[in-house]
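Student: I would love a firmer grasp of how sequence relates to backbone shape in proteins. Thank you; the sequence and its tokens follow:
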Amino acid sequence: MLPSSNNEFVYVPLPPRLLPAFYQWLATMMEETSEEKRVPAPTPDTPKRTATIIDLGIDAAHEIGADHHPVSLADLHAAYLRANPGISKGATLDSFGATINYHTINMRSRFPDRQNKQKSASWLSRPVFKRITYGQYMLLAPDELRLFQQRVEEGDPRIYRDEYDIDDLQ
């Protein structure tokens, strides 16, 4: 049995069926920054701190060429950490991956509520990535983003499939 806590971790039992909701909540909490905790804009001598995980993840994705070829989540996370040394938001692969998944248009885990797939979510309001294959992601190209947003406006049911290829929306 795991200890109930130690100096670094607190163990909380969570039924597996609640994990998707927990990860959605975690990603939301990690991205929200209250006014009193907002860090001033970085100067040339200070690292970027005011951007969200997804903003910094997009920068890291561009740095490693995810706009031209698929990249693994692990490589994307490593680039994110290299570009933002000492950052606490998204420091673990799980928390970073949850944020990326919630901004990915074509994977099952993007739905905050599996019973209501049309519920407002990051992948609808701010689509950023597409999954190419298991563990491989790319940034959406501008024409893909326009196509996706057009399909959202049209209420195209294909965008709510668990998984699909962006080319299926043509």
